[in-house]
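F.,

This is the one I mentioned.
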């Protein structure tokens, strides 16, 4: 029980920040939908900035003093061999922002090249292409895993340092342009509810669930507004998953079955900790309302929100529909559902089992999904329609920079095609 509760404070959170400033290629079509030769190539640099928790941490926690549960720089992390050694990513391979960056490169910046974005704390990291501020175990609230992670407020301070560095290197005008044309993608919040609330008797005594959700959303709103004041205009968000259905929460619920789902539950929902999922859903609903209001309050504010809750629930309930064999158990871990967070053998419980093929699993460890889930949802964020994302997808936000660029060497048809994407976003968001 103690090991599970301690693990709650180190789960992945689900709001992240991505910034993309485009270097875009426009292609002539050959009539059958294939891409032909590039019509023109813009020369503006691409930037990719990420804020959040372990869903998007590429290894910042490798450089801080923290507990083993907040690190992933040991085997079997990076098990699939894409990276030659564990990098600090909480995955068997890549994470969602790695794929989004690759998408931008392949589809729009094929000739410019966009490298993997380094952790902010990596020694001698270059900021010109972007930087990743995320920290595994971090929360919106500074009290969440305090002293063991880089909380969101500190990540914002680190961004200010990068902004100053870019101004010194590029000059004030070019740095402002880079910042204003960027897309900020935020993935954070889960740790506030699992470790920060459900794992904290003090917080549960002080705050009613609705009041606690309001506090988290209020602090997150302030962070969004702070980035807007620094020049950010385009934002992407990864909403919270059904937290109660993570392997760690299912295992915990076995010790407190009174809160599990009852009649009418699907196979993927059996044993879920309903209280945790209810907090996640309340958070998502509140965030959606806030973002809609901010769109009307802040000039030029555009966003892409995601329905990760329903998207992941569908895969857990129907894994075979999406090429998976197991939507419930963790590939790496021990105990019921693989829910004891022991992957790697560095924690209080050192025993763990590792599945033969992580690609068949939705869950890599007790809290984090496999690379395959990261890849599938990255594609949904990039060009998916409602209800997965909205009101814009990341592709539309990325291309919106073209409205500000000169249309030199473009035909009228090319201009119309590029604007149609902006005038027809993905539609309403459910």
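My design for it:
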């Amino acid at each position: 029980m103690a090991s599970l509760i301690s693990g709650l404070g180190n789960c992945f959170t689900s709001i992240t920040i991505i910034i993309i400033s485009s270097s875009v290629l426009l292609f002539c079509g050959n009539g059958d939908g294939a891409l032909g030769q590039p019509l023109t190539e813009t020369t503006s640099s691409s930037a990719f900035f990420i804020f959040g928790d372990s869903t998007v941490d590429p290894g910042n926690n490798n450089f801080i003093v923290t507990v083993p549960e907040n690190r992933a720089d040991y085997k079997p992390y990076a098990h699939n061999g894409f990276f030659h050694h564990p990098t600090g990513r909480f995955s068997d391979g890549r994470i969602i922002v790695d794929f989004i960056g690759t998408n931008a490169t392949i589809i729009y910046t094929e000739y410019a090249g966009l490298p993997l974005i380094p952790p902010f704390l990596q020694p001698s990291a270059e900021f010109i292409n972007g930087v990743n501020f995320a920290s595994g175990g971090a929360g919106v609230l500074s009290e969440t895993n305090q002293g063991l992670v880089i909380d969101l407020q500190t990540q914002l301070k680190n961004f200010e340092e990068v902004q100053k560095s870019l101004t010194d290197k590029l000059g004030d005008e070019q740095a402002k342009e880079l910042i204003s044309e960027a897309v900020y993608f935020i993935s954070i919040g889960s740790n506030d509810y699992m470790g920060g609330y459900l794992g904290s008797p003090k917080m549960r005594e002080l705050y009613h669930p609705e009041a606690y959700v309001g506090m988290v959303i209020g602090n997150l709103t302030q962070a969004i507004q702070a980035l807007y004041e620094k020049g950010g205009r385009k934002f992407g968000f990864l909403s919270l998953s059904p937290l109660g259905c993570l392997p760690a929460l299912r295992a915990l619920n076995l010790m407190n079955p009174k809160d599990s789902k009852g009649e009418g539950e699907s196979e993927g929902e059996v044993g879920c900790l309903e209280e945790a999922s209810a907090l996640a859903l309340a958070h998502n609903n509140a965030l959606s309302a806030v973002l809609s209001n901010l769109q009307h309050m802040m000039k030029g504010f555009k966003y892409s929100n995601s329905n990760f809750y329903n998207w992941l629930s569908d895969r857990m309930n129907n894994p075979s529909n999406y090429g998976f064999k197991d939507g419930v158990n963790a590939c790496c871990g021990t105990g019921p559902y693989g829910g004891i967070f022991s992957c790697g053998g560095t924690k209080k419980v050192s025993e763990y089992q590792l599945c033969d093929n992580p690609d068949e699993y939705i869950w890599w460890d007790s809290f984090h999904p496999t690379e395959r889930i990261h890849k599938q949802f990255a594609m949904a964020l990039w060009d998916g329609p409602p209800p997965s994302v909205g009101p814009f997808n990341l592709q539309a936000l990325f291309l919106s920079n073209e409205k500000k660029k000169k249309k030199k060497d473009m035909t009228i048809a090319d201009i119309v095609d590029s604007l149609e994407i902006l005038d027809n976003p993905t539609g309403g968001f459910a």
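Residues 93 and 371 are 5 Å apart (CA to CA).

Talk soon.
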